[in-house]
Amino acid sequence: MRNESRTRRTALVASAVLGLVVLVAIVVPLLVPLDPLRTDLPGRLRPPSLAHPLGQDALGRDVLARLVGGARLSLAVGAAAVGLSVAVGVLLGAVAGWCGGWVDEVIARGIDVLLAFPGLLLAIALAAVLGPSVRNLIVALAILGWTGYARLTRAQIRALRRRELTEAALALGASPVRVVGRHLLPLALPALLVQATFGLSGAIVAEASLSFLGVGAPPPTPSWGAMLDEGRQFMLVAPHLVIAPGVALAATVLILQLLGDGLRDLLDVRQT
Q1: Number of Cα atoms under 13 Å in the Cβ half of residue 69
Q2: Cβ-proximal residues to 105 (8 Å cutoff; 6+ apart), any chain
Q3: Mean pLDDT in the chain?
Q4: Which of these ranges, 25-29, 30-34, 87-91, 229-233, has the smallest mean pLDDT?
Q5: What CA–CA distances, in Å, run from 21 to 29, 142, 164, 257?
Q6: Quick one: CA dihedral 232, 234, 237, 243, positive or negative?
Q7: What's the rounded Cα separation, in Å, for the pair 203 and 74?
Q8: Helices 240-267 & 2-31, crossing angle to 10 degrees?
Q9: Domains and CATH numbers, the chain
Q10: Cα–Cα distance between 111 and 55 in angstroms, integer?
Q11: Which helix (H) or strand (E) covers residue 65, if one does?
Q12: Is 115 helix (H, G, I), strand (E, B) or coil?
């Protein structure tokens, strides 16, 4: 009981902090005139001050404005990539788990082929081939991410298909699409929700990594990874350039990991 209470409290705190991050990323630019692209060359590399709470970068741009802009990009790219990955993965996983036979074999082997490649290297190759843009970045991350949801959905559908509720629904005349969509997928939803939470943190890290390597969002789009890349050459004279995006990236990923752990414990049906 004590562990369950602690898990619930951790999940609630992580949810509240994540909601605050999303609120800052969306609402603050609407209330405060933050321009992440405005340059001020006389103020380049200035440390934090009242006018610029997180300092200015090598072009005199406000680090706080770019940090908020980077938060919007990271959350938007992560959410879009995870949403697309879930849609494709759930569809293919459900088809493989329900149909079985050669259909299942073809989809399973396709998943194995993608998983055989190192994830980050494949993401770099896809982003380089597609070209530097936010849309292509989302597509590249979705191509990498759908496999996990497909494997999870496939396993869940194969296990649930043998239950009495499936046989009863089929006996009453329900179509396979209705059985999967109305009866089986809702039972698999908790596991998919946990997977999506962890997938969001992975997508944010991947977006920052690709932007750091120069194959993510094109400049001057604010991105935490690009900010780290731009500030690493000034670490000794202006450490605030890497501290701000580094702390923001680490904190966001930590929050999502804690939220995922909490949801996994709370939604784990084996504990009930």
Answers
A1: 21
A2: none
A3: 86
A4: 30-34
A5: 13, 23, 44, 15
A6: negative
A7: 8
A8: 140
A9: 2-32+59-271 (1.10.3720.10)
A10: 46
A11: helix 63-99
A12: helix
Q: What is the residue type of 56?
A: Q
Q: How far is CA 163 from CA 117, 167, 187, in A?
A: 36, 7, 12
Res 272: pLDDT = 37
Q: How many C-beta neighbours within 10 Å does residue 20 have?
A: 11
**Which residues lie below 8 Å from residue 78, measured CB to CB, with a gap of 6+?**
200, 201, 203, 204, 207
Output DSSP code: residue 239: T
Structure tokens at 136: 């292509």
Q: What's the alpha-carbon Rg for the chain, to the nearest Å?
A: 22
Q: Are 221 and 72 in contact (CB under 8 A)?
A: no
Q: What angle do CA 20, 11, 150 make, to 5 degrees?
A: 100
Q: Which residue bears the tokens 């789009």? A: 221
- Smallest CA-to-CA distance from 11 within 261, 268, 270, 267 is with 261
Tokens of 231: 């500030």
SS3 264: helix
Confidence at residue 165, expressed as pLDDT on a 0 to 100 scale? 76
